[in-house]
Amino acid sequence: MPKLLSGAEIVFKALEDQNVEYIFGYPGGAVLPIYDELKNHKSIKHILARHEQGAGHSAEGYARSSGKPGVLLVTSGPGATNAVTALTDAYMDSVPLVCISGQVPTHLIGTDAFQECDTTGITRPCTKHNWLVKDVNDLSRILHLAFEVATTGRPGPVLVDIPKDIQFKKGKYQFSKNTLKKKLNGKATHKISNLELDKFIDLIKRSSKPIFYTGGGVINSGPEASKYLRELVSLTGFPITSTLQGLGAYPGDDPQFLGMLGMHGTYEANNAMHDCDLMINIGARFDDRITGKVDEFSPGSKKIHVDIDPSSIGKNIKVDLAIVSDVSELLKSLIKRFKEKNKNFVSSNKQKTSKWWEQISKWREKKSLNFINSDKIIKPQHAVQRLYELTKKQDTFITTEVGQHQMWAAQHYKFNKPNRWMTSGGLGTMGYGLPAAIGVQIANPGKLVVDIAGEASVLMTMQEMSTAVQYRLPIKIFILNNEYMGMVRQWQELLHEKNYSESYTAALPDFVKLAESYGCVGIRAKTPSELDEKIEEMINIDRPVIFDCVVDKAENCFPMIPSGKPHNQMILGPEEEEEISDEGKILV
Amino acid sequence: MAKSKSAYSVPGKIGKIERHIIVVWVDNEAGVLARIAGLFSGRGYNIESLAVAEVDKKKHISRITIVTEGTPQVIEQINLQLKKLVPVHKVADFKRGEKDILFRELAMFKILGNSKKIEKAKKICKKFNPVILDKTKSSVVIQVTALRAEIDKLALDLKSLGLISTSRTGAVAMTKGSKIFN
Asked: What is the Cα A505 distance to its own chain's centre?
């Protein structure tokens, strides 16, 4: 008879068998047996956060930068509810997380016991699946299944709720791989057929105004997918644009890359999306920040959509060729088939797409990311550009909070590798970037990790600086400080007659002193002339840094597609906004 | 165009609404019905009726029949989203009015009245496999099985004959002939 283990021992045995190295968490009454067992498992290191939301975002940052699932351990009641934002964030952005939560003992469930909440009920809509473990003999099976659900198909968060008595009880441990044989998420067990590939290739060959539109699915499919994507884009000679989450899958400084698309995407990317005759969507989901008004979205194009999640296809936009597949597998087969019959496609097809490229050059001449720089005050875009120039030589990982700074980071920081860019896109969680940077730094020791932040967002999870100091994680918090919730202020300026209702933060902390009180380094830059030197100083410090970059308070993020408008009606900048102010108001 | 003050896009054209019957085979485990119902409410889909019971005691498989309404795009989403749920084994989808599918609902009517009225009520129910489940001098409980619209009409007709209580199941469905759902 196999040796019986306690529930807590089973948890660690399962984590060991899943090769988990780090768990992010926060102890509490209902998980104490699991925390008690921690000391017996040297291969697993626990990172103590300061708030469960922080632990969750750290686990996300870890997962997104390493390609491995993030593991989160929280207690019952408030521990679990605090983790909900991170779980929802991971659900929206397809990040594999396994959250283990403690629960009150089985006999107290339903009695409104101390720190009891209906954790599986609360997290049901923000996880791919969750389990309440009622029998210790189910625990090992459920834990392994949890890892499988989180990491297969379209990745996402799962939660296993373990009552305290189950953590003490002795039971059998079992580990057999492929417990979830019958289905992946969305049952994407589809085999790619040559028929589909030939249709795909046929559409490519017929097109004279093509565009690749790629998203986070390329990143989630692993580094191979980015390699294949680069090969395919080079084989076809087609232009490519990327969503916020897809940045880095294709080199940001490549001439075929048109920049990010969407609400704050480039003029050339959005116009090319609108006017193309073939749109090749690889691993993106036609999000509303991308499509704008659905009825007028790219009206004249044939659309191909490759996605691992069948429910993402046809949800917002109807497509002409739908392929349910992992990006890497599809691209590999497609490239092979394409090469067989289409040698020298780029040169033979050049004529056909030359007019399209001419048009794209014209759009590019608008230089839609330009801004009016100043030598007196630091423009936030300039700060991001300088940060990029001064960090591009080393392998840098960027996280962000949510708002204007996030868009400026996406526009002006050029990514060349996948898994280097961690931002909360779907849920748009302010306070994501700092704890995410902690997770990124843990997964990538010795690498430069910068959270491009706004002062409002970063205050939401500022307590995690204490975590960074405790574990000697030299993350850099680069705050573009304009004293406003910038994106809120921008919308109020453009849509609500400059009624800046509650978007100004009075009584901000002194970030330099705040850094010092946490035991890390504070740096402040106030003028463009000192910016480079201060950024260099930040990079060279091997300790956590809070960098207070005092920027122009009134700067707005352009270009932008006003709500309800198609892609070819962008506002380019403040000049245009003033010229057509009356009409412009109607536009937004 | 009306001036939009929203950071979100304006709604587009809405397609034609269709009624569908969706049959779902699920593991009969705790919370499974909440997952299904939560998916519908969370994504703004309608449930007109829902019938659920375990059909395989050994494998603990339940069969859920859901009547819903939506545009073809929404119906497709419902199918795809349901298939993503871990305890869901398979999903079958039928448009109301498809010929080779059988639908039935069961209803119980309680009628109070004299024997004359009760006789009349029984007569009205005749076409719908009536079963008298309980009878007293002044009351009767009649069970009928019929289509949704037929039961709607019956209930209306029985009103004047002393109908005081109605209990209905949601629709259940099955294919005609030797074919089975797959």
From this structure: 27
Answer yes or no: is A152 within a domain: yes
Print the domain residue range for A261.
194-365
Residues of chain B with pLDDT under 70: 1-5, 182
Domain assignments of chain B as residue spans, ordered by start:
18-95, 101-174
| Burial call A73-92: b when 16+ CB within 10 Å, e when fewer | bbbbbebbbbbbbbbbbbbb
Choosing among 3.40.1280.10, 3.30.70.1150, 3.30.70.100, 3.40.190.10, the CATH entry for B101-174 is 3.30.70.1150
Contact of B136 with chain A, judged by CB distance below 8 Å, is answered with no
Q: Are A332 and A260 contained in the same domain? A: yes
For residue range A325-382, what is the model confidence (pLDDT) as tens digits?
999 999 999 999 999 988 889 888 999 999 999 999 999 999 999 999 999 999 999 9
- The rounded distance, in Å, linking the Cα atoms of A457 and A507 is 15
Please report residues of A whose CB lies closer than 8 A to that of B42: 125
For residue A170, the distance in angstroms to the closest alpha carbon of chain B comes to 23
Q: Does domain B18-95 have CATH number 3.30.70.260?
A: yes
Residue B104 to chain A, least CA–CA distance (Å): 30
- Counted domains in chain A: 3
B39, B86, B91: best to mutate for the A interface, most A CBs within 10 A: B86
Q: Could you tell me the pTM of the whole model?
A: 0.94
A32 and A81, same domain (yes or no): yes
Residue A94, amino acid: S
**Could you tell me how far CA A366 lies from the centroid of its own chain?**
29
A319 to chain B, closest Cα gap in Å: 12
Q: What was the pLDDT predicted at A209?
A: 97
Whether A287 contacts chain B with CB within 8 A:
no
Q: Which residue has the tokens 């029998």?
A: A135
| A271 shares its domain with A361 | yes
ipTM: 0.89
- N residues, chain B: 182
Query: Which residue, chain included where needed, has tokens 């199918």?
Result: B79
User: Each residue of B150-167: pLDDT tens digit?
Assistant: 999 999 999 999 999 999
- B85 CB within 8 Å of a chain A CB: yes
Radius of gyration of chain B (CA): 20
Catalytic sites of A, residue numbers: 52, 114-115, 164, 487
Residue A145 lies in a domain: yes
